[in-house]
Amino acid sequence: MPTHSTDIDHVLKSLASESVKQGGNVRAAVRDLTVNALQQRELTLDQIRRVLRSVAAGVNLGVAEREVKVEKALADTVAGMDDALLKAVQASNVALRKLTGKGYDYQDSNLKQALDELEGVEDAMFRSIATATESAGEKVRAPWGRVLKAARLSGTAAGAQVASTLRDYAERAQAAMREQRETSFKTAHLLTQNFATLASGILIGMSEGLGAKSVAARRKTRPAKKRTITKAPRKRTAASPRTTAAKAAKRRKTTNRVGTARRRSAK
Known about the structure:
Blueprint lengths: L1 H20 L4 H14 L5 H21 L4 H32 L7 H11 L1 H14 L3 H17 L2 H65 L19 H26 L1
Helix pairs in contact: 1-2, 1-3, 2-3, 2-4, 3-4, 3-6, 4-5, 4-6, 4-7, 4-8, 6-7
């Protein structure tokens, strides 16, 4: 696998060199070479660096072997690289939107890594050119230094696009965090209300239970009243005639007996 990658890098270097030797539109040639090379690889910072180093090394060879306006050719090379990286950043932005559209949270580690790599695109370009400058001959080294310095000062279109994308995602992340906090606050507020209502209901039930127990306790401790039974007075009923006659006869007999006894005692 490393050998295969090395072969591809060597081919890319040769193509870049030939593009400069042939003259024409160096910017367009470098852009197309860079875009095509990136399309054949995973769009990572490591692969971006490899492609840019190979293209820059090829440009060094082409400029050294042909009488051209060196600084103009190098400036066009940087512009072509910038154009290619701008397309790469735009492609990354589309991929990021798809990730977030699939429910990836802004705090997700994969999304963070993608944004971090995107942030390093412009620096990867400058570092790759600087590496190519170190290995360049005297004819190319000084012009490379001036072109690189100018590019750092003015910035790149790819870098500006990256900055815009990062601001956009930072704003989205903040909005998502605010929304999450508001949702959490509403949920917590509703939970507090429900808890307060539930606690109040439980307290009412406990109070009613305590009241019922107090009443029952007072009833147990209070002495029971003695129940007095009052007899109803008997109603006097009228005596029947037969009963009255019998009582009169009885009284007469008693009277006669008393009278007889008195007479006997007198004799």
